[in-house]
Specification:
The protein has 119 residues and is mainly beta. It has strands at 3-7, 10-12, 18-25, 34-39, 46-51, 58-60, 68-73, 78-83, 92-100, 106-109, 113-117. It starts with a strand and ends with a strand.
Length: 119
């Protein structure tokens, strides 16, 4: 079965950095576009970044452009999100996800990893 397992979250001071990882299993990872999304308390799900199946295409939300970098290692079935210059507004649960649905969600996503940016 499809499994997506995020890791790497934590508490960091404003201006700090974190790298999130998403380990995928149960499907042909190298053939799928993958997504990082986040949800802050009381807010809607926000698409943060996505990456094409071979890593050749990337997309970033305006809110993270220039600060976050998405990447993947298909040999390791793993996707990454390098987050620099973190702001308190980046505080959220971060999920990796696959296959957007017509209702704005995703067909598969992990359990999420909490990122808290606070002094």
């Amino acid at each position: 079965q499809v499994q997506l397992v995020e890791s790497g979250g934590g508490l960091v001071q404003p201006g700090g950095s974190l790298t999130l990882s998403c380990k995928a299993s149960g499907f042909a990872f190298s053939t799928y576009q993958m997504y990082w999304v986040r949800q802050a308390p009381g807010k809607d799900l926000e698409s943060v970044a996505d990456i094409g199946s071979d890593g050749g295409h990337t997309y970033y939300a305006d809110s993270v452009k220039g600060r976050f970098t998405i990447s993947r290692d298909n040999a390791k079935n793993t996707m990454y999100l390098q987050m620099n210059s973190l702001k308190p507004s980046d505080t959220a649960v971060y999920y990796c996800a696959r296959t957007p649905t017509s209702t704005g969600g995703y067909e598969y996503w992990g359990q999420g990893t909490q990122v808290t940016v606070s002094s």
